[in-house]
Amino acid sequence: MIIIAGTLEFQDSHARDEATKQSRTLQLATREEEAGCCAYSFAPDPCVPTRIQVYELWSDEDSLSAHFKHPNYVAMRDLLRSSGLVGSETRKYRINLAEPVYDENHLPRADFFTANPLD
């Protein structure tokens, strides 16, 4: 699994809100049309009025590579660049273990307690 997480900064809150609104169709298309896309969300940050929080979850490198060549990606990139984007910081993370946050007693756990690899 691969997580992409980051932030996009816009010139003002109106530009951010318009980019969010205009990208809805592309976000939905990516989720529904692209193999290996488990999550794809570009959402307004509730604490910073000029920021979008980025969260993507991909099943593998091949899916992510195909996404970078897909018309949805190209259209999203072009939309964001033309919408008052002034900065961005995104990173990708390769994930090999996933567990619930809460144990069987509904208590949050910071440790990895089930050791179920994602292979």
How would you describe what is shown here?
This protein is of the alpha+beta class and 119 residues long. The chain is 34% helix and 29% strand. The protein has a single domain, classed as Alpha-Beta Plaits. The protein has helices spanning 13-33, 61-69, 71-81; strands at 2-10, 37-44, 51-58, 85-94. It has a 4-stranded antiparallel sheet with strand order 2-3-1-4. A hairpin with a 6-residue loop joins strand 2 (37-44) and strand 3 (51-58). Residues 2-93 form the ABM domain. This is ABM domain-containing protein.
What is the residue-averaged pLDDT? Answer: 95
What is the chains' assembly state?
Answer: single chain
Instruction: Let me know the largest β-sheet.
Output: 4 strands, antiparallel
Radius of gyration: 16 Å
